[in-house]
Amino acid sequence: KLQELYGFVNFIKVNFSILYEYNMKITTISMPLSAFQVVESLRRGEFNIEFTYFFFGCILHFVMPCYYSNLLMERSENFRFAIYSCGWENHHDKNIRQMLLFMLTRATEPLGIATVFTNISLDTFAEMCRQSYTIFNLMNAAWA
């Protein structure tokens, strides 16, 4: 099962890394644009539901891969700790120790989904939100 999981994560990395990168960049641009439209409509005394839904849709569209990649990274880290603390020092069989050493070596690098330039995690989402907020502040200062 572990080999299947590594294969599946590798499949996602190979096939979707460029799409996740585009998703991250487009979301970084579309979030402040839609937030600015919502704020401008509120300044006019209106409430633009379309841009509000679009804004929250942008957030959900990018937070889901970040959340699940972060969860995958945490679980793989917990798996590595579980292997190390399984009581391997009490087993004197050389084959079992070699298998545990192989599993520990394989689990040294935590699993996670990566884009072209960075690993996707909740830290990536926070950085994307920070950049979006910076763009929103620039737009708000220039046109408000």
Automatic annotation (TrEMBL):
GO annotation, cellular component aspect: plasma membrane
Signal sequence interval, chain numbering: none
UniProt cross-references to Pfam families, sorted A to Z: 7tm_6 (PF02949)
Record localization: Cell membrane
Any one GO MF annotation of this record: odorant binding
Entry's transmembrane regions: 51-71
Membrane topology: Multi-pass membrane protein
Keyword Membrane: yes
Keywords noted in UniProt: Cell membrane, Membrane, Olfaction, Receptor, Sensory transduction, Transducer, Transmembrane, Transmembrane helix
One of the GO biological process terms: signal transduction
InterPro entries assigned: 7tm6_olfct_rcpt (IPR004117)
PANTHER family given in the database record: ODORANT RECEPTOR, ODORANT RECEPTOR 19A-RELATED
Protein name: Odorant receptor 30
Taxonomic source organism: Bombyx mori (Silk moth)
Lineage of the species this protein comes from: Eukaryota, Metazoa, Ecdysozoa, Arthropoda, Hexapoda
